[in-house]
Write a structure and sequence with these properties.
The chain has 119 residues and is of the alpha+beta class. The chain has one domain. It contains 3 helices and 6 strands. It has helices spanning 3-7, 36-48, 101-118, and strands at residues 14-16, 27-29, 59-65, 69-74, 79-86, 89-92. Strands 3-4-5-6 form a 4-stranded antiparallel sheet, covered by helices on one side. A two-stranded antiparallel sheet has the order 1-2. β3 and β4 form a beta hairpin. α2 packs across α3. The chain is globular and about 30 Å long. Mean pLDDT is 78; it is low at 1-29.
Length: 119
């Protein structure tokens, strides 16, 4: 199954670039709904990408302070975004929301950290 099959490449949520990388596919995503699900998708692409260049990613992880702060870089708007975690609930300071792509990405980053800390 290709990323195009998994993510409905093209018209729905993702636009694929013409160049396919050695790793799989170089995806240029466009956030359409700015919801948690799109943040989860952006995290998956970031995690699995060997090419960490801004042209290959929507969002990247800059800093993680467990259970307090996740600092991201949003390559679409070209700025750093803070997601603060209070009582286990993430809140995006950029979008003023707990239901945006930044929050979805931050939730995944927190979970990945907690999972790796258990090993």
């Amino acid at each position: 199954m290709t990323p195009e099959d998994m993510f409905g490449c093209g018209k729905a949520h993702l636009q694929c670039g013409d160049n396919h990388s050695k790793v799989g596919y170089s995806l240029m995503m466009m956030i359409r709904n700015n919801d948690v699900d799109e943040g989860v998708t952006a995290f998956s692409i970031w995690l699995n990408s060997r090419d960490k260049s801004p042209s290959a990613l929507l969002i990247s992880l800059e800093k993680l302070v467990p259970d307090r702060l996740v600092l991201l870089h949003d390559h679409v708007v070209q700025k750093d975004v803070s997601v603060e975690v209070s009582g286990g609930v993430p809140f995006c300071m950029e979008c003023n929301s707990n239901d945006c792509a930044h929050v979805g990405f931050a939730i995944c980053a927190e979970q990945m950290h907690k999972h790796s800390a258990l090993k």
